[in-house]
Amino acid sequence: MIIEMTMYGCKCDNCGKQWEDEDMGFVAFTDHSGIKSSLEEDYEWHIEDDKHYCPECWSYDDEDNLVIK
After folding, report:
1. Residue 4 has pLDDT above 80, yes or no
2. Maximum Cα–Cα distance for the chain, whole Å?
3. What is the model's pTM?
4. How far is residue 63's CA from residue 60's CA, in Å, rounded to a whole number?
5. What pLDDT does 62 receive?
6. CA atoms of 41 and 37, how far apart (whole Å)
7. Can you tell me the distance from the alpha carbon of 52 to that of 46, in angstroms, rounded to the nearest whole number?
8. How many angstroms separate the CA atoms of 10 and 29, rounded?
9. Rounded Cα–Cα distance for residues 53 and 40 (Å)
10. Residue 45 above 80 pLDDT?
11. Most buried among 8, 18, 38, 66, using CB within 10 Å?
C-alpha cells in the first residue's frame, strides 16, 4: 500500500542549499526532534535565531565572532 507521509528536511537560510548526506543523499525526518541536533553535531550546520546555515555559509573570524558569508 502506498501512503502519503509528511517528512521534514532543512535548507540553508543564506544560500538555499538543501541538507544532504554525502553517502545517503537527501535527509528527511518524520518529526522536528532530531533535526537540530543532527544538523549541528553531525553536519556542522549553524543554527541561530531559528535560522539554519550550511557549513559553506558561516565561519568565525579571528575574534570568534560569527560571520555569515
Report:
1. yes
2. 56
3. 0.79
4. 8
5. 96
6. 6
7. 6
8. 10
9. 10
10. yes
11. 38
Residue with cell 538543501: 18
Q: Does the pLDDT at position 33 exceed 80?
A: no
Rounded to whole angstroms, the Cα distance separating 28 from 33 reads 12
pLDDT, average across residues 37-46: 85
2/65 Cα distance (integer angstroms): 48
Nearest to 15 by CA among 42, 55, 65, 59: 55
Residue environment code for 10-49, b if the CB has 16+ CB neighbours within 10 A, otherwise e: bebbbeeeebeeeeeeebeeeeeeebeebbeeeeebbeee
Grid cell listed for 55: 557549513
C-alpha cell read off for 29? 525526518
